[in-house]
Structures are given as structure tokens and as C-alpha cells.
From TrEMBL:
Organism, as annotated: Cyprinus carpio carpio
Function as written in the Swiss-Prot or TrEMBL entry: Oligomeric Apaf-1 mediates the cytochrome c-dependent autocatalytic activation of pro-caspase-9 (Apaf-3), leading to the activation of caspase-3 and apoptosis. This activation requires ATP.
Subunit relationships: Monomer. Oligomerizes upon binding of cytochrome c and dATP.
Name of the protein in its database record: Apoptotic protease-activating factor 1
GO function term, MF aspect, one: ATP binding
Length: 1217
């Protein structure tokens, strides 16, 4: 017994044992030959009814599928309908031989009854559908004791008539329910006169065998024939079944409303509404599954399903398993067995007329059979139904027999110009005639069109330009030039397919206006995401390029680079994203106009004014899923944890599921490189059987490669597919012969790490072959090794930083380029000295396109990036470091920052022109500052040296030594004559830098990362804090320590002093903030509530509020009147970096009016201090922003991100272009 049937029986065991009386059920099962007399006796020997039921079930579980079906039928016959329903989902599918032998158990007397009643013989080629048969029989058993109607309905060619005839080939059914006989009448589409002829024929058949004196003349009218049939069925055949096949209209059906038992086949589900009596329905699925359809084709050509050509599977797929189409084509192939490709092509080209009659079917060709359903519609409704062909295949809903295409009511309401209630009435008529399907489980109802019907409609309406124009005209009339509301789910169709209809209608101007609109991009991206939009610009590129190819590329590039932002929720501000586009871009022009309008209404937008200084980064960024992306490639196979599935890249359909032979997780799979012999390799975490070769045409593996005793992380074929390289956690790289599956070479990579021991081996992450196959390259720990394939000698060793690990490597298939993915967020391309920066977390995978023009990378930041290898930064290009300082002077801005070459750069102006660039320093620059006059800059280095340089000459004015370790922070006093520095050596130094005089402030026990200089008219106080949990206050005029406060149990991370000097605040790793009184040095408030380290704080300018930010990305506003929490500024959910702010909140600033707050984390956000709501967000290319510099008027903002890009943002002012 199948596992599904067995499980269903076990699940229902308790209900069955409690309800059934086994003696009645076993009578049927003995009659079916399922139970022996001995088995029946053993069951009945049990003392109680429940024990008898349990014993029967135990016997059944030891038998095959036939026992399950016999038991199910017995339940139906004995009126255990509710119990039968429990078992219905587990009904097994028998083999054709099994089905035939089981179904053919019909006694000669019953066979005679069916023949006399005109029931058609089983087709020459027949494959049963047991679930459907059982359902029809179950309904027929309902007519055992009462007249009524069983309606079997479905679309053209779904097999209704064949299944109706097969259902009555059941000895028990005839014996128990219809001992008076079964009478078949084919009704079809007929006029009144034709109907009378059919009824006369039936009367004549029923009157056969009567004595001549009672024989009557034929009835002269339909009404007379109806009464004659009523008499015959009630008096002569009181317990018989009348089968009316292929009934089309209610008049014909009412002619047989004579209070008898009727089985009805029709395309019109609602026909039975016109007659009286009990009614039961059986829907017939419109197609067979692939297995059954292939069985039919195999029987027609006298072959085996597995031996059929590949075209057979394509034919079944193309016709969606339609029994009619499969049978028609099968019969044609029996006569022309070499024409598989020809008939497949006719199906694909919708040449339904050429798929012609080859049996007793009523219609000459497939198109006639499908057209017959349309002809019974009213002319007006017929036109409306044909309109459905213009609608794009919106949602493909998989069905057992093909696909269904889903329509929204509101779309049809617009297309047809009808009210929604009128639309539902029309659709109901289509449903009743099996021209549409309806899902009653949805509210409002969902309606579906089978794609075989849609293909027929498209073939009937080949010139659809006018239909598409009608669609656009109706849309414009209905929405009156304003898009549908994004809150309405029915708008999805328009946002997805409006460009399609415009393009098909030839309305190019309307398409330009739509696609070159930032408003359309905003609405569609919010509803559909960026992928659909990018596809639109590609799909309709030729049409759009006729208007302006540059604008099309501008919109496409904008979406490609910002697509990952558009997948975020809450949805980002597209206008703000577009303000980062080049000034010459149409996207930027439209965004600026909208931003200026917003600014006039008091809304906030920021313009990136130094756009020209941003280097070329990735070409495409996508956000495919929530969670890390561990692998990405240009084409792929899908692997589940332990099994494989092969999919069609063109159609997205499942081709094959392979057997589950791996016991542990599959780590990698790869096809051969050439097309001579396609093989698939897989590797897994299994101990021994961890590497397998598969033939894609077979469900089981072809070979297993033995050698590794630990998990195999990666496998790859050599360029000529002769060898397979495997990389394992056992520390080795092995090469296997593909033909023999034998190990050829083994390289002990672990041996190249002397510090490794037997317990902790160097894991070989992956391997890749050089283009000519002479070298094999692998990655382990922080090293990439290159080996000679023939000799196994190591040719090259490339190490990264000891703080980084190599996650993946890939060699270009046609050049010497090698890409390496690293844990420190970077991709390196060797032989090109190139770095790809932009990921915000570990890079797990990297792969070249076949021509090496593109590079794909995936990361834990949940994104996949596509890079143009010729345009990414070279390692010699300078990137700024985040240790910057900025001076705002009137409308000008001066920026000082070190770069990746360890040179100091000074930039001036909003556009970011380089004013000065120093020579490369021997020790890394760790901090910088600029004097108020902008005449001097200072820098501190890792070796403790401090230098003061003149701007713009770059002349060194002073070199100060004294710190013994890294200098973390430096700052000029207002007059520029004194320089303050703090260091890893736990001291703060006060320098008269012109003379070299130095005052050392000692007392901290841990490094001093920052300090705060507070100036007043009478004195200058310095606040310094440290990881030792203390804060110290110094009098700079006298050099004395004024106060030594043990503030926190954890490290002090930040401090701020109120503008009036009365209060100061400290924040700590202990998750608290404290507010102190500057006069008494007592704590005023202890601020609790943060769930992580409190990293930053700032007083408002009016000193009434304090804002704090933590490492969880949360920002809190506190009242300085009583220390109460006022607001929490935070997203509703965490972002892709598992934070509420893309990372730690590192810096905070209030606007002069205290109404707006700006914060930095993984990106920059502006907040309303009144509501706590975000006003604007600016996404930088990199992340982990260290600080932001804000102009006094709160209109200019400057920062540097983690990949060295400088951002100068200006608040957009209201106005017009």
C-alpha cells in the first residue's frame, strides 16, 4: 500500500474503529476479492465491534492499494460518507494493468445491462482516474433510495463522458442502486426537432420487449415524449439510471425532468438549477497529470512511457494534459509515428485546426470543440469573453492539469465599462458554462481562465491592437490620468501590465510619458518592487530608445543601483534616492523639482552636491531574500538541504527531481562546462559518500567518489570536464577522474599551515581551475594557493590580512583574472589590482561571467552585487578614511581627512575640490583637525606623533612627540594656538604647538579615545573619559584636575556638555546614560532603558532635552526637567544589518530650533523631535558612519562612509528651476 494511503488510514484509525460495522463492509470486500473467507472469520471472532474494526484495519494495512480502494467504496455504499471523505485524499493511483483488472470485475449480466442501455464501450486507449471515478460513484450511491441528479461538469475535452461511462462499470453499484438498468442518451447541441428524435429513440429502446398489443406509436412532441419517458421510468424501470451525455441548454434538460435518477455530463454547471429534485455535483479537472498523459501516448504508439521521445513530454505540457488533445494527437501518431515534432509544433503555434478528428468525437478538429462552448453565449457576452484574450497572464496558478490565469474584477470592470455587480453576473455565466473557474474560498471571489482556453482565444483574435487600444482607452477614461490607488490590491494588474498594453497598442508616446516619470517609478516600485521595473526598461527598451535612449538608461541605472533599497520596509523616499543621481540625469531633474515643491511645504530633502567625486561602484544591486546570501551565479541549479531539483531556465518549470541520496546537507552542485556530455556533480556533509556524479536524465546518481572522510565544501569540473576538484574540511584538495570516478591526485593543503594541529585542520573552502586547466587554485583560511596540476607543486601563495579570511575564489574562464571574496566586506581581483567595495558584511561568493566583463558577489548583507570589472576601483585609487574634520565658513566648507594611501587630503567647496594632498606618512593617520582660520591642520598617528601643517602649502610647521602610543583625537582651541590630543597611552596633552611646550594630563588607567573642550568667558574646562569607567574634568588654565568621577561600571563611550555649562552627560557600555550637575558634580538623572551599549549623546541647544543612541540602533529623547523619557526614535522593525539604524548610533546633532535631530549609524536619518518620526533617510554606499559634521545653520552635512566615499549634503530649498 502506498505510504500516502497508509498514513491516511492510520490518521483516521480512531474515527473508523468507533463508527464502522465491519460485517456489512466485509461483504463488499469479499465480493471484490480483497478479503478471504478465513480473514473475514478471524475479524468476526473478535468479541466487540471496536475490536473487530481494529482487526479489519490491521488486515487492510498488510494489503495493497486495491484493498484501500475497496474499503473506500464499501464505506460509500454503506452510507459512511463522512468517513469516506476522511480517506478520499489518500486514494492511491493504480498502474494501468491494476486499474483495468480491478475495474473490469463486471459480471456478464451487468455487462449485458450496459450494452442494452447503450453505454459506450471503453476507449481502445484508456487510463483510469480512480479518484474521479470514486467521487462519481459516491454521488451515484446517493441516488440509491431517491430520485435525483448527479452533474458531472467540466471544460471541453476534459473526459466527462468517458468517466461517466466508466463509473457505471461497477457490479456492486448496478446491483445495489440501479438493478433496473442503465440507459445512455447522447443529447449534444440540438434544436427542438432533433431533441424529439433523440427522445423517440430512447422511448423505442425502453419499449423493446413489450408485447405488440402494448406497443405505441412514437411520441409526436417533446411534451408527449417527456410523459412517455416518465411512465416508462416509473413503471417499467423504477430503479434505473438515465445518463444524459453532453447537455447544453436548460430546455433540453427540463425535457427529462421526470422524477427519475439521472447522471448528467455538461460544460454548463448551472443547468441542473432548472430541474427539481436532489442534486449532486462532480467537477472534472480539465487535464491529466504528466504521468497519465504519457501512459496514454505510450499506449497509442505501443511503447513504454519512459521510452517516448522528449517531444512527448512537451506535447503534454503544451496542451496542459487535456485528455481530448492527448487522445487526438495519440491517434494521429499511431498512423504517423514519426511526426512527434510536427504535432508539437502545431500545438505551439496554436494551429488547432490541424489537430483533427481521429475517433468518434463529435467535432472534426480541436478548434471546433473549443469554439462550440462560445457559440452558446449571447453575442454580447461572446465579445466580452473574447476580450479576455487581451489580458496578460497575470498570476499563473499551478493546477494538476496546467495553469489557470487569474483576473481581478476591477480590471474587467474598467475594460468592459460595467459595474462590479454586472461583471460578476457575466463571469458567473462563464463559470456555469465551464469557460472560467471560480475560487469560492476567496473573498471577493477569484476567477481563473485555463491557459488552453486562453490560447484558443488568442488564436481567434490574432490582430489584437484594437483590443489593447481599448484597454488603454478604458484605463484613461476610468482613472482620468491619475494612477490607481496603491492601497487597492486590484491595482496590481495595472502597475504590472500597463506598459505591456501600451507597447502592444503601438501607443509609444503614452509609453514614453509613463516610463520616463519618476511618479510612475515611485508607485510601481512600492507595489511591485524594483525587478519588475528594471525588466520593463529592458523589455520595452527598443521602443523607449526611439524617444531618448539616454533617459531610458538613466532610469534603468537608477533602479539597478538602488533596487536593494526599494525592497526595504518602510519604503524609502525615491525622490531622496534620486537626488544622488548625476545632475545631467532626467531622474535627478524630476527629483529636484519635486524636492523643491516639498521644501516649499516645509518638508526635508537633501541634495548630494559632490556627485562627481563618487567612484563607479556596482552596476546592479539586488536584495533577493531576508538573510545572508551564501551563493550566487549567472545560471544555477536548485539544491534543497539533501535533494536536488532540476528546473527549466526558460520556462521556470520543474524538469526532474533526483533521488535523495545524500544523508546530510548538500553544499555545492555544478554542471560540466562543455555540452558534449552533460553531468552534474554534488558534494555534501556526508562522511564517506560526500561526492556524487549525476546524469540529468536519470533520477539516481551515476557514480560516487570516495576519498574524503570529512564534509566536502565545494566541487568544480576542469575546463575539459576530464577531472573534478573537491575541497574538503579534512584539509585536502582532491582531483578525481570523471570517467572512472577514481581519485587521481590529493594535495594536503593543511600541511602548508605549520601552526595547524591534528584536531583543528585548515578547512579548504573552495577551488577553481585556470582557463587552460594547467593550474588548480584553492582557498583556505586567509590564503589562496595556486598549484600545478601535473606535479601538484605549489606555484604561488597569496595571503590576505590575518584579520580576514578567504571565503571564495573564482578564476575567469577565459583570462588570467582571479576574484577573491573576503570576510572584511571586500572583493579583490588579482592580475588587475582591483578592489570591489560596497558590501556591508562578509562576502561569501564571487563569480565571473563567461567573458569576464562582469563580476557577481553575494554577502551576509543580504544583497547580490553585479560589478563591471573595467570600472571598479583599483587598489591604487585613494579612498578617504572616516577620521575627518570639517570647518564651515559662511557658504564654504573645508574638509580634512586621511586616505587609504596614508596621505592627508584637504578639500574645499561643496563640490569637493582637492586643496592640498600631503606625502605618504610612515605611520597610519588616526585623527585630524582643522583650525578655525583654516590655515592649519593637525594629524595624529599610530606611533604617537602629532604634526601641524600649513594649508594650502602643506609645509610642516611642527612635529610634536611625547605620546607613546596611538593618538586617537586632536582639536585646536578657538584661537588656533593650542592643540589638544588624547592617546592610547591613557594621557591627554595640551600643546603650545608653535613652541613645543606640552602640559600632560595624567590620571586615566585606560586609553582616552575622546575629550570635550568647554569654553566660557571665565575659564576653559576639558572633559576626558576612558574605558576605565571614569570621567575627569580639567582646568586648562592651571592644568589641574577639578574632578575625578567614577561614572559607570562599564567603559564611558561618550560625553556632552550643555550649552550653558550647567549640565553634562555620560553614556556607557553598561547600557545607561547619566546626567550630572557641573556645580555640585552630583548625578541628576540615571537614564535606563537602552538594550545595548549607549554610544552617543547630545544636549539640545535650549538644554531642555538630551538625546542618546545605542548599538542596537535605537535613539531616545529625554527631558532635562525630570529625566523622563519623551520619545523613542526608531524603525518599526530591524533592517538588513539586524539594527534599527543599520548599525551603531555614532553621532547626534540638534537643529538650532531644536525641532529636528540628525543621527548616523549605517546611514543618516533626520527625525522630528516632537513626534519621534523619521523625516528623511540618506543611504550611503558604505556603512558604519563614524560621525557627521553639521553646519551651524543645519543646512549642510558632511560625512565619510566605511568604503571611503565623501558625502556633502545640502538641504534643498523651496523654489523653481
Amino acid at each position: 500500500m502506498e505510504e500516502r494511503a497508509r498514513s491516511c488510514l492510520l490518521r483516521s484509525k480512531d474515527n473508523l474503529e468507533q463508527e464502522i460495522k465491519v460485517s456489512y463492509l466485509m461483504d463488499h470486500m469479499v465480493s471484490d476479492g480483497i478479503l478471504t473467507n478465513d480473514e473475514e472469520a478471524r475479524v468476526l471472532n473478535k468479541p466487540t465491534r471496536r475490536e473487530q474494526a481494529a482487526a479489519l484495519l490491521e488486515v487492510l494495512l498488510m494489503k495493497d492499494n486495491r484493498a484501500y480502494i475497496s474499503f473506500y467504496n464499501a464505506l460509500v455504499r454503506e452510507s459512511y460518507g463522512d468517513l469516506a471523505n476522511l480517506l478520499h485524499s489518500g486514494l492511491p493511483l493504480l498502474s494501468p494493468v491494476g486499474k483495468r483488472s480491478f475495474a473490469d470485475r463486471v459480471s456478464p449480466s451487468v455487462q449485458a445491462i450496459l450494452s442494452e442501455g447503450g453505454v459506450p464501450q471503453r476507449p481502445v486507449v484508456f487510463v483510469s482516474r480512480p479518484a474521479l471515478l470514486n467521487l462519481i460513484r459516491e454521488k451515484l450511491y446517493r441516488l440509491k433510495n431517491t430520485p435525483g441528479w448527479v452533474t458531472v461538469f467540466g471544460m471541453a475535452g476534459s473526459g466527462k463522458s468517458v468517466m461517466a461511462a466508466e463509473a457505471v462499470r461497477d457490479h456492486a453499484l448496478i446491483k445495489e442502486c440501479f438493478p433496473g438498468g442503465v440507459h445512455w442518451l447522447s443529447v449534444g447541441q440540438c434544436e427542438r426537432a432533433d431533441l424529439l428524435v433523440r427522445m423517440q429513440s430512447l422511448c423505442f429502446r425502453l419499449e423493446q420487449g413489450q408485447s405488440s398489443d402494448t406497443s405505441q406509436r412514437p411520441p409526436c412532441s417533446v411534451e408527449e415524449a417527456k410523459e412517455r419517458l416518465r411512465f416508462l421510468m416509473h413503471r417499467r424501470f423504477p430503479r434505473s439510471l438515465l445518463i444524459l451525455d453532453d447537455v447544453w441548454d436548460s430546455f433540453a434538460l427540463r425535457s427529462f425532468d421526470i422524477q427519475c435518477r439521472v447522471l448528467l455530463t455538461t460544460r454548463n454547471r448551472s443547468l441542473a438549477d432548472s430541474v427539481s429534485g436532489e442534486k449532486f455535483e462532480v467537477p472534472v479537472e480539465s487535464g491529466l497529470d504528466e504521468k497519465k498523459a504519457l501512459e496514454i501516448l505510450a499506449l497509442y504508439v505501443s511503447g513504454k512511457p519512459q521510452k517516448l521521445p522528449e517531444e512527448a513530454r512537451s506535447i503534454v505540457s503544451e496542451c496542459k494534459g487535456s485528455p481530448l488533445v492527448v487522445s487526438l494527437i495519440g491517434a494521429l501518431l499511431r498512423e504517423f509515428p514519426d511526426c512527434w515534432s510536427y504535432y508539437l509544433r502545431q500545438l505551439q503555434e496554436k494551429q488547432f485546426k490541424l489537430i483533427r478528428k481521429s475517433s468518434s468525437y463529435d467535432y472534426e478538429a480541436l478548434d471546433q470543440a473549443m469554439n462550440a462552448s462560445l457559440q452558446v453565449l449571447e453575442p454580447k457576452h461572446r465579445d466580452l469573453y473574447r476580450d479576455l484574450s487581451v489580458m496578460q497572464k497575470y498570476i499563473k496558478v499551478p493546477a494538476k492539469d496546467g495553469y489557470l490565469f487569474f483576473f481581478f474584477l476591477s480590471v474587467l470592470s474598467v475594460l468592459w465599462g460595467l459595474e462590479s455587480e454586472e461583471v460578476e453576473d457575466v463571469l458567473q455565466e462563464f463559470v456555469n458554462k465551464s469557460l472560467l473557474f471560480r475560487d469560492c474560498n476567496q473573498r471577493p471571489y477569484h476567477y481563473y481562465l485555463h491557459d488552453l482556453q486562453r490560447d484558443f482565444l488568442v488564436e481567434q483574435n490574432r490582430d489584437q491592437i484594437e483590443l489593447h487600444k481599448k484597454m488603454i482607452h478604458q484605463y484613461q477614461q476610468f482613472y482620468n490620468k491619475r494612477p490607481p490607488s496603491s492601497g487597492d490590491i486590484d491595482c496590481l494588474y495595472w502597475y504590472r501590465f500597463l506598459p505591456y498594453h501600451m507597447a502592444k497598442a503601438g501607443l509609444s508616446k503614452e509609453l514614453y510619458s509613463l516610463m520616463f516619470s519618476l511618479d510612475w517609478v515611485t508607485e510601481k516600485a512600492q507595489i511591485m518592487g524594483s525587478a519588475h521595473l528594471i525588466n520593463d526598461y529592458v523589455e520595452y527598451g527598443e521602443i523607449l530608445d526611439e524617444e531618448n535612449s539616454e533617459v531610458r538608461l538613466q532610469f534603468q541605472e537608477f533602479l539597478s543601483l538602488n533596487g536593494h533599497h526599494l525592497e526595504q520596509r518602510p519604503f524609502p523616499d525615491i525622490v531622496q534616492l534620486a537626488l544622488s543621481q548625476p545632475v545631467c540625469s532626467e531622474v535627478y531633474r524630476q527629483a529636484l523639482m519635486q524636492a523643491q515643491k516639498r521644501a516649499s511645504r516645509g518638508q526635508l530633502c537633501l541634495d548630494l552636491v559632490n556627485k562627481n567625486n563618487q567612484g563607479s561602484l556596482s552596476r546592479l544591486v539586488v536584495h533577493p531574500q531576508q538573510g545572508s546570501v551564501y551563493y550566487a551565479c549567472f545560471s544555477f541549479l536548485c539544491a534543497n538541504p539533501r535533494s536536488l531539483s532540476l528546473w527549466s531556465a526558460e520556462q521556470g518549470t520543474l524538469i526532474r527531481e533526483f533521488g535523495e541520496e545524500h544523508e546530510e546537507q548538500i553544499n555545492h552542485c555544478q554542471f560540466t562546462n562543455t555540452g558534449r556530455r552533460v553531468l552534474l556533480a554534488t558534494c555534501s556533509n556526508d562522511k564517506c559518500t560526500n561526492t556524487k556524479l549525476w546524469n540529468p536524465n536519470k533520477p539516481t546518481s551515476q557514480n560516487t567518489m570516495f576519498g574524503h572522510m570529512e564534509p566536502v565544501n565545494h566541487c568544480c569540473f576542469s575546463p575539459n570536464d576530464a577531472y573534478l576538484a573537491t575541497s574538503s574540511s579534512d584539509g585536502t584538495l582532491k582531483l578525481f577522474g570523471v570517467s572512472s570516478a577514481n581519485e587521481w591526485k590529493s594535495i594536503d593543503v593543511n600541511g602548508f599551515f605549520p601552526e595547524s594541529d591534528d584536531e583543528i585542520k585548515a578547512i579548504v573552502k573552495c577551488s577553481t581551475w585556470s582557463a587552460d586547466g594547467s593550474r588548480i587554485i584553492c582557498a583556505a583560511r586567509n590564503t589562496v594557493f595556486v598549484f600545478d596540476v601535473k606535479t601538484s607543486d605549489m606555484l604561488l601563495e597569496m595571503k590576505t590580512s590575518r584579520l580576514s579570511t578567504v571565503q571564495y575564489c573564482h578564476a575567469c574562464p577565459n583570462s588570467s583574472l582571479l576574484a577573491v571574496a573576503l570576510s572584511h566586506y571586500t572583493v579583490e581581483v588579482h592580475k588587475k589590482n582591483t578592489e570591489c567595495n560596497g558590501h556591508l558584511s562578509w562576502v561569501h561568493c564571487v563569480q565571473f561571467s563567461p567573458d569576464a566583463s562582469l563580476l557577481l558577489s553575494s554577502s551576509s548583507d543580504q544583497t547580490i552585487r553585479l560589478w563591471e570589472t573595467d570600472r571598479v576601483h583599483t587598489s591604487s585609487a585613494a579612498a578617504l578614511k572616516r577620521d575627518s574634520d570639517v570647518l564651515f565658513s559662511h557658504s564654504d566648507v573645508t574638509i580634512v581627512a586621511p586616505d587609504s594611501r596614508n596621505q592627508l587630503q584637504v578639500w574645499t567647496g561643496s563640490a569637493g575640490a582637492i586643496l592640498f594632498e600631503s606625502e605618504e606618512l610612515p605611520s597610519r593617520i588616526r585623527c585630524t583637525c582643522i583650525s578655525r582660520s583654516a590655515s592649519f591642520v593637525a594629524l595624529g598617528t599610530e606611533d604617537g606623533t602629532v604634526q601641524v601643517l600649513r594649508v594650502p602649502s602643506g609645509k610642516t610647521l611642527s612635529k610634536l612627540t611625547g605620546h607613546t602610543r596611538t593618538v586617537h583625537h586632536c582639536q585646536f582651541t578657538d584661537d588656533g594656538e593650542t592643540l589638544l590630543t588624547s592617546s592610547e597611552d591613557t594621557t591627554v596633552r595640551v600643546w603650545k604647538w608653535r613652541t613645543g611646550e606640552c602640559l600632560v594630563l595624567e590620571g586615566h588607567k585606560e586609553p582616552v579615545r575622546r575629550f570635550h573642550l568647554s569654553n566660557s568667558s571665565s575659564s576653559s574646562h576639558l572633559f576626558s573619559w576612558s574605558f576605565d569607567g571614569t570621567l575627569k574634568v580639567w582646568d586648562l588654565n592651571r592644568g589641574h584636575m577639578l574632578q575625578d568621577l567614577e561614572c559607570h561600571k562599564g567603559a564611558v563611550l561618550s560625553c556632552d556638555v550643555s550649552s550653558d555649562g550647567h549640565l553634562f552627560a555620560t553614556t556607557s557600555a553598561d547600557r545607561t546614560a547619566k546626567v550630572w550637575n557641573s556645580a555640585s558634580w552630583e548625578m541628576n538623572f540615571l537614564l535606563k532603558g537602552h538594550k545595548d551599549c549607549v554610544r552617543s549623546c547630545r544636549f539640545s541647544w535650549n538644554n531642555k532635552r538630551l538625546v542618546t543612541g545605542d548599538d542596537n540602533g535605537e535613539i531616545r529623547l529625554w527631558s532635562m526637567l525630570d529625566g523622563a523619557l519623551l520619545k523613542i526614535c526608531s524603525r518599526d522593525t530591524k533592517d538588513s544589518m539586524d539594527s534599527f539604524h543599520g548599525g551603531w548610533v555614532t553621532d547626534l546633532h540638534f537643529s538650532p530650533d531644536n525641532r529636528v535631530l540628525v543621527s548616523t549609524g549605517g546611514y543618516i536619518k533626520w527625525w522630528s523631535t516632537e513626534t519621534g518620526e523619521a523625516l528623511q533617510t540618506f543611504y550611503t554606499m558604505g556603512a558604519n558612519l563614524k560621525k557627521i559634521h553639521v553646519s551651524p545653520d543645519f543646512t549642510t552635512f558632511v560625512t565619510v562612509d566605511s568604503i571611503g566615499i565623501l558625502y556633502v549634503l545640502k538641504k534643498v530649498e523651496g523654489g523653481s528651476l
